[in-house]
From TrEMBL:
Keyword Mitochondrion appears in the UniProt entry: no
MF (Gene Ontology): endonuclease activity
Source domain of life: Bacteria
Reaction catalysis annotation: Hydrolysis of DNA containing ring-opened 7-methylguanine residues, releasing 2,6-diamino-4-hydroxy-5-(N-methyl)formamidopyrimidine
Protein name, entry field: Endonuclease
Keywords: DNA damage, DNA repair, DNA-binding, Endonuclease, Glycosidase, Hydrolase, Lyase, Multifunctional enzyme, Nuclease
Family, as annotated: Belongs to the FPG family.
Keyword Hydrolase set for record: yes
Start and end residues of each Formamidopyrimidine-DNA glycosylase catalytic domain: 2-91
Length: 245
């Protein structure tokens, strides 16, 4: 599943169409696309793993899910996987194998934009309150909770927990205040590192534990385990990451 930084890069690639009118809309997404024809694309907003194409009267929400993708100006996938195509005078954008929905403008006002780790509106104090209110939650679940850390995915989760020396099954209520602050800070820091490395096409070279087998600090074999309510893959070192339970 693409994480927040990858969605930022997608937004940057789509910005060329902002200010242009839709000339044609198609695809098998189950909403009426005709009203968007003739409307101008006013802006593109991202919230974690979601992208909002904002038009004059409504918006289209794109979520790439696990295997979604997009292309610009040419279709590279079979038509049966095409969820949405929007054509403009200078080209088009195509979205495949993803969730595409039309949402009312009011929906945009209901989003907690301060939860997005890559946003200028990111609010660490608010995030800390959310974490404090869930003392029984595992830290791996907290990092993956899009209402707390919007944009964080499994790669970021594993790398952040290694950076701060905390095992994924640690409980939020057991974390010292210092570790809680580190968790919040590194979730944002690593997300921006991820974005920079993604631009450089060097992301995987910087992974320390994600999909790895040996701890880069002590050399011991890493634990690979499905953790948390979501049973997502975690990679961690029992020696260099502490369990707070």
């Amino acid at each position: 599943m693409p994480e927040g930084p990858s969605i930022i890069l997608m937004k940057e690639n789509l910005l060329q169409f902002v200010g242009q009118k839709v000339t044609e809309a198609s695809g098998n997404a189950k909403f009426d696309k005709e009203p968007f024809v003739g409307q101008s694309l006013l802006e593109i907003r991202t919230f974690g793993k979601q992208t909002y194409l904002v038009f004059e009267k409504a918006a289209i929400r794109i979520h790439l899910l696990m295997f979604g993708s997009y292309s610009i100006d040419e279709q590279t996938k079979p038509d049966k996987s095409l969820r949405l195509a929007l054509l403009f005078s200078t080209g088009g954008m195509y979205f495949y194998t993803c969730s595409v929905k039309s949402v009312e403008m009011e929906h945009l006002y209901s989003i907690d934009w301060e939860a997005d780790v890559l946003s200028d509106r990111w609010n660490p104090a608010k995030t800390k309150k959310k974490l404090k209110s869930n003392p029984g939650m595992m830290v791996c679940d907290a990092l993956m909770d899009q209402n707390i850390f919007s944009g964080v995915g499994n790669i970021i989760k594993n790398e952040v927990l290694f950076r701060i020396g905390v095992q994924p099954e640690s409980l939020l209520g057991s974390l010292p205040d210092k570790k809680l602050k580190e968790l919040i800070a590194e979730a944002r820091n690593y997300s921006f590192d991820f974005l920079e490395w993604k631009r450089e096409f060097t992301l995987k070279k910087h992974w320390l534990v994600h999909t790895k087998t040996v701890c880069p600090i002590c050399g011991l074999k890493l634990i690979r385990k499905q953790t948390g309510l979501g049973k997502r893959r975690s990679f961690y070192c029992e020696k260099d990451q502490k369990l707070y339970d």
